[in-house]
Design goal:
Elements lengths: L1 H21 L7 H27 L3 H23 L8 H11 L4 H4 L9 H10 L4 H12 L3 H7 L1
Length: 155
């Protein structure tokens, strides 16, 4: 679920940040996170375009053709974005290239956004817990017991 994935992502990011800080290591390069965030926005934009297409068109042949155009246009937007990125390319860049070059379909787009949908909410909960992990975990456990609609409202 978006709740679980966002929680795990927050714990990973914050835990790594604290671990590096405690060892006197510099923060991770923000360029990597910025690139990832921008790529996710490109994918979420494609998902939104497809959602609008499905809502406004009911002819399956027209949908199929328009969907392929959207995928082609997404690949073009991705290449334009990728080619403007500063710095050396890394493994994450090659992974994004492979994803975009591979077969695209609704299922392959689904995971994007799950991992970060509630990150700001978990960051707020952590700040409200005074940066105390046990207090934060207790709040998250209580929230996890709530029905999804109520939990989403709180987040």
């Amino acid at each position: 679920s978006a709740f679980n994935e966002s929680f795990a992502s927050f714990v990973q990011h914050e835990g790594l940040r604290q671990w590096r800080s405690a060892r006197g290591l510099p923060p991770l390069d923000d360029q990597h996170q910025r690139r990832n965030d921008e790529f996710v926005r490109l994918v979420l934009d494609l998902r939104e375009r497809l959602r609008a297409l499905y809502a406004n068109t009911h002819d399956t042949e027209k949908i199929a053709a328009a969907k392929q155009r959207e995928f082609r246009d997404f690949r073009d937007r991705y290449r334009q974005w990728r080619d403007t990125q500063p710095g050396a390319r890394d493994a994450a860049d090659r992974s994004r290239d492979a994803f975009v070059a591979g077969p695209l379909n609704n299922a392959s787009l689904l995971p994007f956004g799950l991992y970060d949908q509630w990150l700001p909410a978990f960051a707020t909960l952590f700040r409200e817990a005074g940066g105390d992990w046990p207090t934060f975990y207790a709040h998250v456990r209580a929230l996890a017991r709530e029905p999804q609609a109520q939990r989403d409202g709180v987040l």
